[in-house]
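stage 2 :: seqdesign
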């Protein structure tokens, strides 16, 4: 089969021919219908050899959807022909966090060498993919796989971050979204759908800000130090009750900290390596800062339900597998509007 692989440190991803995978006991073989392109792929492909832990060659694609092609011995919950989305942050399935459905925080994944597809295990940017357990599959329930595949990360990750801050986002409150790319433009829609907050979007690119307005942000600002005063002005001096930073570089985490209101939340989702100093007097009173990872199994079910209700629609650009390297070039250049989605069996 054809697959998009990252093969050598510092190289660009390439389309290669590899053997078709064979389904083992307990596993599920999918014909991939869609695979999303995430900035995290770009991040890991930029790591030096000593920090790169994802194995080579790596078949990319941690946002995946497919049709069940075959099931291994003992699989009874899905059958050939089922249309499914893949829950990506695989865990051991047995520890306390996994029992809660929070496999993204599995206590054993690291020690047991369990890695998400596309981030260690072979991913969705291939004609077929293996899913290690049927519990990682959520029925699409009529949702178009191409339009919705990115909900498995670009939807699930902001959903998890926003849900944690919901108690602080009633009517009359303000949420700031920094970085209105793949995750951010979905985050804005989730905020509008499940919270009472007014949404202010920040980006460095005017086209991304236009997209932010289209998907529901009430205000947009260029992401620079002036945005702090602008947010204070828009909020009657109070600041933002929650700031979601989908960039996470030093300048954006500093903006996030500076614009958070008393008792506000700062959530650093972007993996840009920024660090926010927290201590008395460094941020407003009682500001909470967190850096979450992906989301839980139940939250993926919820986010797909939200899409089915019509409240969330991912803006997509589509590519065949042969064109996938071009999608990564455009991601690298910051040119993608919303999310790029690869259709491996187009
Ligand atoms: P993306 O490339 O689609 O979007 C990034 C956006 O940020 C773009 O619109 C870009 O113009 C904007 N941007 C860049 N610099 C900025 C700045 N200084 N201020 C404001 N905006 C700026 O990326 P994505 O796929 O949405 O991913 C966003 C981040 O989230 C990445 O760092 C990614 O690795 C990370 N991520 C984290 C998790 C997690 O679980 N924590 C999961 C998925 C992705
Ligand atoms: Zn991702």
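stage 2 :: out
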């Amino acid at each position: 089969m054809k697959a998009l692989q990252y093969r050598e440190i510092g190289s660009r991803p390439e389309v290669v021919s590899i053997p078709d995978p064979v389904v083992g006991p307990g596993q599920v073989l999918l014909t991939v219908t869609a695979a999303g392109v995430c900035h995290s792929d770009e991040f890991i492909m930029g790591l030096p050899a000593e920090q790169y832990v994802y194995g080579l060659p790596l078949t990319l694609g941690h946002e995946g959807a497919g049709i069940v092609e075959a099931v291994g011995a003992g699989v009874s919950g899905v059958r050939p022909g089922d249309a499914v989305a893949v829950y990506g942050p695989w865990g051991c399935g047995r520890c306390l966090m996994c029992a809660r459905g929070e496999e993204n925080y599995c206590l054993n994944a690291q020690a047991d060498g369990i890695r998400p597809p596309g981030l260690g295990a072979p991913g969705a940017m291939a004609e077929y993919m293996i899913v290690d357990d049927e519990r990682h599959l959520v029925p699409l329930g009529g949702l178009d796989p191409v339009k919705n595949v990115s909900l498995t990360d670009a939807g699930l990750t902001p959903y998890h971050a926003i849900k944690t801050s919901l108690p602080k986002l009633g009517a009359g409150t303000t949420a700031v979204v920094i970085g209105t790319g793949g995750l951010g433009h979905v985050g804005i829609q989730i905020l509008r759908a499940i919270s009472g907050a007014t949404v202010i979007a920040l980006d460095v690119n005017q086209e991304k800000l236009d997209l932010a307005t289209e998907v529901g942000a009430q205000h947009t600002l260029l992401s620079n130090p002036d945005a702090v005063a602008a947010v204070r002005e828009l909020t009657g001096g109070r600041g933002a009750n929650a700031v979601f930073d989908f960039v996470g570089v030093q300048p954006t985490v500093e903006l996030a900290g500076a614009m958070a209101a008393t008792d506000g939340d700062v959530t650093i989702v972007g993996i840009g390596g920024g660090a926010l100093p927290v201590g008395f007097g460094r941020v407003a009173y009682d500001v909470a800062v967190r850096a979450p990872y992906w989301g839980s199994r139940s939250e993926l079910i919820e986010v797909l339900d939200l899409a089915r209700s019509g409240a969330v629609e991912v803006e997509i650009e589509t590519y065949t597998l042969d064109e996938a390297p071009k999608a990564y070039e455009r991601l690298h250049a910051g040119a993608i509007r919303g999310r790029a989605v690869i259709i491996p069996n187009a």
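stage 3 :: structure notes
- The mean pLDDT is 98.
- The radius of gyration is 20 Å.
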